Amino acid sequence: MKYPRTWNNERVLQVLTTESRQKERDLFMRTHRPFMQIRVDFCKEKGIQNTFIDEDQLRELVQNSSLNAHNRLFFVVGEAGSGKSELCQWLEYTVDERRVLPFHIPRSMTTATGVAALLRQQSKGFIPKTLSKTPITVQVRHIISSAIIILYEDRSSVFPPEEHWVRLIESHEMHQMIEVYLQNILDGAKTFELLADEDEIRRILNKYNLCSLIEDISRKKGLLREILEQAIEQTFWLGDIRLVLDDISRHLILQNRRPLLLIEDITGFQTLSGKLLDYLFDLSTGHFDAVIGVTSGFESTRLIDSVSASDLTGVHHRLKGRFVLTDDHGCSYGLEDGLIELTRAYLDAVRADYSQAVQEPLFSAFSQGLYPFTETALRRVFSSLYEDGIPRRTPRLFLEHVLAAALLAETPPYLTFDRSRYIKAPPLLFRTDDVPDPHLQSLLRWYGEIDDDFITLDARIADVWGVHLPEHAYREGVYRIPRAYAGPAPDIASNSAWQQELSELQSWLNKGGMYPSREVLKRGIERVVRLFGDPRSLGNPDAAGGASIVYARGDERLPISLGRNSGDQPSTSTYIKLKIACSPDERGILEELAYLALSGKDLLQACRNVALTLEWAQQRWREYHLEVRDLFARHLHGITVEQFIWTSWRLICGLCGMPWDRRPHLKSCDVGNIPYDRVTPWSPERHGACYAAGKEFLRYSDVVRQLFIGTFALHASVLDVEACTAAQQSAASLDVIDRLARVSINAWRKLPFRIRPTGQNLSDLLIPLQRYAHALKQLNVQVAYTADLLDLRQKERHLAAQEPFDHSLLQRHLATLRQQCGEIGLTWRQQWDEALDTLRSVTGEQLINLRREIQRLCASVEARSKEITDDIWQYQQFRCHLRPIIDHPYWLAVATVQTIQSDLLSAAYTRYRRRGGSITNTRQYRQLKETIRNVWSEITDD
Amino acid sequence: MTEKSIISLLSETCTTLDHLKMHDAHAESYERAQERTALVLQAAQRLHAALQRLRAASLLLKVVAPDCHLASLWSRTCTDLQKGMPRDFRAPAAAIVEGHLDLLRLIEYTACSAAVAEERGDQIADHLARLMQESSRDDGAHPSAVYRAWIEEALSDLVRKKNADDAHDMWQMLLRRCGEAP
User: Fold this and answer.
1) Yes or no: is domain A34-110+240-324 CATH 3.40.50.300?
2) pTM
């Protein structure tokens, strides 16, 4: 890499100064480019507002007034570096001195002493010299006395103990320092600082034992300087600047001229600003014209604190005109249009020997003498200027951080621009894997000519700086590579900083780190990944309907985590994201996907190799989908989604009396008005837990059915046989119910699995399922079988006892039963009629058949008693076969008759509870017998 | 689930109900018998008291006026009562439980006997009061009701004492009592 120069750095430093006043008049006038666009916010004398004027017109507005007009104030407002000083300087050099006398107060002159000296110097003796006859040593004593009074009156709290500091101020050393300072000021040295030598100050403080008393010497030095400057100001102005300004105004009016104050920037004024501005804003006090530079934002903050006006409106009412140099975005008006001419002017001034600039190829390859820039590069870098994170395109930034930086650097400008913190590099509009050389990438970024399809570079530019051009893209003196990324449609482009976003992506791809607009890339990734469906959905992609389980984190958006410290949080054990590692292989694809998102184009337009991109996306889809599945299975002890749904549906079908083994059905389990206890295989007495948990779980039958259809059905009535076979085999290979029973609900609640499309949380379904599975595991199948057989045998014996079945006798007994109820006063219930009707209608043959059925079932169970295991499915099947026997209306009728009998007897026992006895055993009767014996004794006793 | 025939179960229920009803009827009968017993007892007690008083009055009369025609009232009463005594009087349980005529006869006999004994006791007591008044030295200074009350008082004491000596002492005491100033 080489960097031929046609300038020397010393000259660059002379020409490209920060302040316009740092240049000699000739150099200033040579490099000054006219301000062609100054926005007039308002100008009261001409009655114009919101229009643009040039600098000549502004000058006319300022200097064209009647001699005796009162103070006229003009604000020139602009961002720092927007040219306020340049304008003031130009006015100083070009105003008509027959009509006005300019007093140019530069930005650096912020103290009263400096301004006093300046006014005195420029007034050319018509201001009576204050204290002109008093020897300087006496002036110094006066200043020291004033400083001591200020210290005692206003600053005693800052300088404890005062006696020590008074001794310091009265010291010989301090006396000498002030005398030297005054002498310098009177001799015209504008920038000489008081108490500038810190070592000297420290020595004096040591001498007067003050170092140990203060912690922050720099701050104390500043405060001490403030006291001394205030004392000097009082001494010089004798407390009132207004008198001096009056003198200036009066004397100049006598000369048929008006004083013109050119204050570069009021922002930096210290104690003086209040007094000076008060004088100027009191319009009738004098005949000054004042052009005051104001940094944007200062007006509404500190300025209104400095003057007597109550608010900004009050300030504006006193202005004659307000001129604005920069727009709301911090860009100087008209600068872009004159950018090339401005650069040429400075480059001309920089080059001592112009003949070098016309050497080939430095002349023609670089826009006719703009070496080391081209017009393209200048405009591109100008539009990339930033300060403090916001766009700011001012002359100072351009001159200092583009021109000066590029000319002074050891490396060619494209590298300087890449490294500058004031320049935000635009994106590379070509695929970076097409141009592996970073130097060439950078050169193309700044110097490449961009058209619709290609980016081209004059090969001579690369040659000048020794950048190698690959031969395959080099033809007829031009290096040409395909343009991969074009601007989006105008409506999108106007609303998005697509280039900035592309630039951020490329920076992240290059070196990692924070990637602020990563959402753009994520949108592109999501768009292409979603072509394969939502990877969070765990349903069957071939299913035509039904519901599915989805991993609901991220809501509408896919959760994506970009690596390389992009600012994204990585996945956690429960919050999994689609991970983009940004390996070198996928770099080009990622660029394309970001471009896809921000251009609004379709995949075919944005991607060079669509098949490759789709393959990459499918791989990411698969990886993420498997992660979601793995998360699901991990929290269900290895149960897959299919096993979960398969088993749930099988359990539901069993609960509603429609069990299946290998071949599931899709019939709705909505049993309508049939009570749960008539369909469930479980008895509330013998399988209480299963019965209760099953009842709760059955409420979700429709949800489970929809999930089953969404996973195992190609249509609402057509099963996906392959999926069913696979699920049946995998579910059979592990005890799903046992695993479900062990699921930790608390851990599961943290997972965001939901059922789509209802949005129901999967844990709503899992909780009753887990309880049901737990109840099933608690059931002792062997004991349950035994109990069922006992019950069957008892039923069988009951039926045997009915034989021979005397139907007419039963009828009579039933009639008696009804009659007895009436006698006893037992309320007859309506449902008893149904039971008695059943009994009346039942025949002996029916009872025999029922008995045979029981015998057959008992025999079949007992025949395979050795094969009976704890298999809950087998037992459930058995319970379902039991259902016709249990549900036979005869049992209900018998139970009802028993209930009637029981109620009747109970009522009879209540009604006939009195008990009799033998009268001869009563006391009363014995008393009677005794009395009778006595009577007998009386009448028979002689 | 019962292993019996429903028919036999229903039959058993009917039997149980019959038993319960029977017990209830018996209990009702028992309650009524108790009420009747109380009635008979009250009448018997009245009869017994009347007989005791009549016997005491007769004993006192024998001491005071052995020849008085009223002296035979006691023995005649005993004879009358023995003659008219119903068959069930000494074992009234059956009549009380059954009720009907036997019970009516029993109650009638007892109540009538008591009334006769009381009336005859009153006749003797009145006579004794007159005798006492005549025998007294104060020559009937007290009202006749006072003598009658003294006689009743003396009869109450004599119910517990059945020999003639006691009756004699009692009469002497009555006479002394007549001699005292009213």
Assistant:
1) yes
2) 0.55
